[in-house]
Amino acid sequence: MSLSFLSVLFCVLWSSALSAQTEGGNYRLSVGDQVRVTVYGHEDLSGDFSVAADGGISLPLAGDIKAQNRTTGELSQAIADALQPDYLKNPRVSTEVLSYRPYYVMGEIAQPGSYPFVKGMTVVNAVAVAGGFTYRARKGRITIVRQAAEGANEFEADFDTQIKPGDVINVPERFF
Q1: CATH architecture of 103-171
Q2: Which fold has domain 3-99?
Q3: pTM of the model
Q4: CB-based burial label for 13 (10 Å; 0-12, 13-18, 19+)
Q5: Burial of residue 20, with CB atoms counted within 10 A of its CB: 0-12 exposed, 13-18 middle, 19 or more buried
């Protein structure tokens, strides 16, 4: 087997593993996410980057690349396209999410604020991390505001609802 065949095979396997890690490749990047970009054979072009407030990342040679609302696969392709004509011939690029943007908990909980996202987290886990409910919390009316491509969606949640990066969890006050 040639070295180029092995490197292409590694690239394919690596991309498949990364897609499985990021919710089937459907996870959309946004401000606050941190990604690792690997340009195979070019360590000087590889590195860890945060999605900036304008929704982009700034890479050596490639410049500013829009990352917001793209999957890791789409971002890899955009970086390869930016490098290909002028700098590299057939660049192989992969991206992976190193850390997800935080989620937010507000309302009637002990310590409202932002918290680092962990996969598999539910509403009850998020509230526990935030110090638990206050005595005035209306536990049956928890809402989540979740960003989507078409805008923000607000919906009622129960304790077992899965949290996603960037979610805003609101625990309202009861009035009796």
Answers
A1: Roll (3.10)
A2: wza like fold (3.30.1950)
A3: 0.73
A4: exposed
A5: exposed
